[in-house]
Amino acid sequence: MAPLITHLYTADPSAHVFEGRIYIYPSHDRETDIQFNDNGDQYDMADYHVFSTPSLDPPAPVTDHGVVLRTEDIPWVSKQLWAPDAARGPRDGRYYLYFPARDKAGIFRIGVAVGDRPEGPFTPDPEPIKGSYSIDPASFVDPDTDETYLYFGGLWGGQLQCYQSGNTADVFDASWQGPKEPSGPGKRAMGARVARLTHDMRQFAEEPREVVILAPETGEPIAADDHDRRFFEAAWMHKRGSTYYFSYSTGDTHYLCYATADTPYGPFTYGGRILEPVLGWTTHHSIVEFQGRWWLFHHDCELSKGVDHLRSVKVKEIFYDDAGKILPVKQD
Ligand code: FUB
Q1: Per-residue pLDDT tens digits for 312-329
Q2: From the candidates 12, 85, 119, 300, which is the catalytic residue?
Q3: Which domain holds residue 242?
Q4: Is the pLDDT of residue 43 over 90?
Q5: Is 85 in the pocket of ligand 1 (CB under 6 A)?
Q6: How far apart are CA 176 and CA 162, in angstroms?
Q7: What is the annotated signal peptide range for this record (predicted)?
Q8: How many A from CA of 282 to the centre of ligand 1?
Q9: Model-level pTM greater than 0.85?
Q10: Would you call 43 exposed, middle or buried from its count of C-beta atoms within 10 A (0-12, 13-18, 19+)?
Q11: Number of structural domains, the chain?
């Protein structure tokens, strides 16, 4: 499958259907001479573009709506505009772009920028969301309640491990910086975080909670050493029928996996793999229903011939079995 976008490197695609079109909110990868490290310093992105297309099957040209937000537009940001997402406010019909970046102290926070159109432009709030931390915000508007939830978090360079001693942005522990995470017998994996948003879409309405994933064979939380199944980064939420599907990357084992629950908070039960490892270290995705079919947006490094920080967005159709399990995607 060819990349959807070839004139730029794009990654971490968050796809949504707005006004009858697919809109894609990706990271904009760029060339840097920063050496690869486990902290992700080589992912040194400085702006966002928005893309859209009217059709996936048959494929239609993808429109690049241009730059919608830059580092220099955001007063609190120092660097690294990582994986974004967007939501349409169910109460005001405006569009909200959520993005992680390092603040002036080098700590990842999550910001929000507001626009009147899905393709932007977006005006950032002057401060990050109060109490936000780590990376990879994924917004989810529950179609049955019109409540919006923000899922977030990522280990290693994403700094989630720096919040072991509490669940608030005030307890950043710099000694956990770097590619470290809980490990050892009896230790449970760290979960992503989720918080319901205020109705103005700009703040947490509650203290973030941990997203717990249970192993189906024991009913216990996934163990920290279970790197084939534990959450690493790239959270996504979609709802099909009454089931909430939380999907994510396992990081150093490079799988996209999912878990299900009957509430947006979980606890979730591990369900299986969606995508096997792709070319490149990172794997990141979104899942969206469009014209009655379900689609997986993800990235790989095929276009850059394997350069980890130069990724390209792709799309594949996905299918569910009669019990609601996501069938593993066939490799190209
Ligand atoms: O694009 C930078 C980081 O790489 C993202 O935030 C992670 O999910 C990984 O894809």
Answers
A1: 999 999 999 999 999 999
A2: 12
A3: 9-318
A4: yes
A5: no
A6: 5
A7: none
A8: 7
A9: yes
A10: buried
A11: 1
